[in-house]
Amino acid sequence: MTGMPGTDGTLDGPYAPSPDGRRHLPGSDGEHALQRSLGTEQRAERFYEQQVLDHLNERMREFVGRQEMFFLATSDRHGECDNSFRAGPPGFLQVLDPRVLAYPEYRGNGVHASLGNISENPHAGLLLLDFERARIGLHVNGRARIVSDAELRAQYPGLPEETPSGRRFELWVRIDVEEAYIHCAKHIPQMVKAPRGTPRDWGTDDYRRKGGDFFGAAREQQARRAQEQNRPPAAPALPSVPPAPPAPAAPPVPAAPPVPAAPPAHLVPPAAPAPLATPAPPAAPALPAAPPAPPVPVGQELTPARAEARPALPAPPPDVQLWREEARRALERAERAGSGGGGWFG
User: Would you place residue 231 in the very low, low, confident or very high pLDDT band (cuts 50, 70, 90)?
Assistant: First the structure.
């Protein structure tokens, strides 16, 4: 951000009063809205005017030259943020001039999260804290870009030649300063420096020297993978049944043809006369009933041959006495005819 108080304390650039008398304050529209909502506009404006610079003054440059660490905030092109930590020997964060800082990229875990964000979004924020002496902090916001060692060294020949471990620098991050302001000492704790390690610890790949698995993340991930490997495979998902096709719509029912109107009564022809009933034919005369057959004598069943040879019996006379006489004579004739046959079972 440009338009901060100049080196002589006067306002210049966009921070100076505009033709309409209004000043363009540093910061975002969101923080200005909150200042109005919470009633802190006067305090915020006083801080902007007295503490926010667009460069590093002499005392700021001296402060940067003594620091051995800082925190770096970056974000990708979508605004997703990342905060990282950088450390080195005093003065590893180089003050190239009042408006330019640069720091070398040492060997790390190979993720390059900060560099990846800077390659998409140049906005970066640095926070330097002195826990040991002054208990004060310094904010530096600006635009960062990645440059090679050869490119930066061509512009600033006084850069150090190698890292404390003897390795040459390959990449630098250059930061063009837009804002620089104090972080008050109210809540910065006092700390005592621990015994220093050997210079060879800088840039080491030793797992234990780098902290190892201090938070147990590697053990947790290893246990999770082992649990997933021992888990029985899930049953394959059954194929989904395709939905039944919708039933075809019934064809439209044709409308019934219109009923023709009845003709006038005087045009309707007279109905034909009903045909006369045909007389039924006379019934046939009843036939006389046949007389019952005479009984067969017991013990003398007729064979088919004998039945054919037997003469037909005359019809019984109407007189009972005559009928009996005729039956006696027929019996005698039958006995005579069958006397030479040896009986029924001859």
Answer: confident
